[in-house]
TrEMBL record, chain A:
GO cellular component: plasma membrane
Taxonomic source organism: Thalassospira xianhensis MCCC 1A02616
Lineage of producing organism: Bacteria, Pseudomonadati, Pseudomonadota, Alphaproteobacteria, Rhodospirillales
Protein name per the record: Heme exporter protein B
Classification via Pfam families: CcmB
Transmembrane segments: 20-40, 46-67, 99-120, 126-153, 160-188, 194-216
TrEMBL record, chain B:
Protein family according to the UniProt entry: Belongs to the CcmC/CycZ/HelC family.
PANTHER family linked to this entry: CYTOCHROME B_B6 PROTEIN-RELATED, HEME EXPORTER PROTEIN C
UniProt keyword Membrane present: yes
Ranges where the Cytochrome c assembly protein domain occurs: 6-180
InterPro entries assigned to the protein according to its UniProt record, in alphabetical order: Cyt_c_assembly, Cyt_c_biogenesis_CcmC, Cyt_c_biogenesis_CcsA/CcmC
Record-given protein name: Heme exporter protein C
Organism: Thalassospira xianhensis MCCC 1A02616
Annotated GO biological process: cytochrome complex assembly
Superkingdom: Bacteria
Amino acid sequence: MNAFVAILRRDLRLALRQGADSVMVVAFFIVTTTLFPFGVGPEANILARIASGVIWVAALLAAMLSLERVFQTDYEDGTLELLTLSPVPLELLVLGKVCAHWLTTGLPLIIAAPVMAVMLNMDQDGFGTLMIAMLIGTPALSLIGAIGAALILGARRGGVLVSLLVLPLYIPVLIFGAGAVEAALLGISAQAQLQIMGAILLLSLAAAPFATAHAIRQAVE
Amino acid sequence: MHRFAKPSVFLKLTGAMMPWMVALTVILTVVGLYLALIGSPVDYQQGNTVRIMYIHVPAAWMGLFCYVGMALCGAMSLIWKHPLADICARATAPVGATFTALTLITGSLWGEPMWGTWWVWDARLTSMLILLFLYLGYIALVNAFDDPERGSKAGSALALVGVVNVPIVKFSVDWWNTLHQPASVARMDGPSIDPSMLAPLLIMAFAFTGYYFIILVLRVRLELNQRRIRALQLSGLFDERAAANGDDDALAYDQGHNAGAGK
């Protein structure tokens, strides 16, 4: 547990000292969302209709773009190799890094999401569900994404590749995340969608650290 | 199982089986196509369009079958480190991707006259599209490394993670209200499709399976032979004689090369 906290603190400190990373993710999220009113047109009804989907897609892309830094720099300077050699289970260290990734990308996105929802003219009934859904969904995105980030270590054109690997696996989160907000906007209980998202989160929490650790071991071999 | 995984045994065995497999597949394809295109009745609602099904459904089955096969090979290469399992997984991916693409294309051609649209964002169609993306991701990942072995390992892990999509494709028609028709062949209470249509469907499915295995064997043999040529080139023994009957050198390399990877 000490190792988990240590790696979490280290990654958080690195992210905060470099600072720009979290800000960049949120900036990307906001800019991408802003593109839609230009593309679709500024009509309020249409924007309100597509708001939940747009926010989720932008969040997915923002979470994906920030994946590269989870393992890449540590892989390049050899830290990852030392981490695999440590007596602490690599799965636990992976979980620590994923937590740090979520705290520096998922959490800012959750805070930024309602602001974008207001700008896209989304009905206020959906705000609470949107934030709850993102609270359940974004950790799953970090966990699933970590697998992709570990698989591409040492690959050519890794950045493009990770999108092809990770985005298909993100689709369930997108479907139920947007579905939950839609249900809330229609005045129906979003419980079913949120429960399925909880199941996705638990499943990825159980499986992703092992798959990621396995991929890392191959990469540093 | 492990005995057959030795490249030399595999080459000998498949070499002997190949003519029979080809003959069987050709017969099945000819009979299946005859029954599907001429010998089977016209559907009372769909007319002749129903004949697309005899390609569409077997292709869809093969798309899933190939993915499961690829993931199993990936698992075997991760667990037992069989070099042949790696090669099988790599060789399966493009075939499976083609079957999946064929499913989507034929489904789209059928959907236009029947549903009035080329594409709907229906659970079955969408999950099949994701399957295609998973195949493409696998192919891209496997080829993204300078060291082919590393690519295979990463690909195996991805294939195993992607298996979650297979039950989603299979049960999507039961779990969601979809436009796509529910299962009519693999059902608990027996197939609900008329025998005159079931027969050509199953024959076509067997023909597709035979085709897959032929292509798989050809691709694996190609890869093994390419490795052998590379090995001979590296050891400087590459001359006419070695190319003609250099089995021993190449096999010695194969075994030596794989010794580090286990049995």
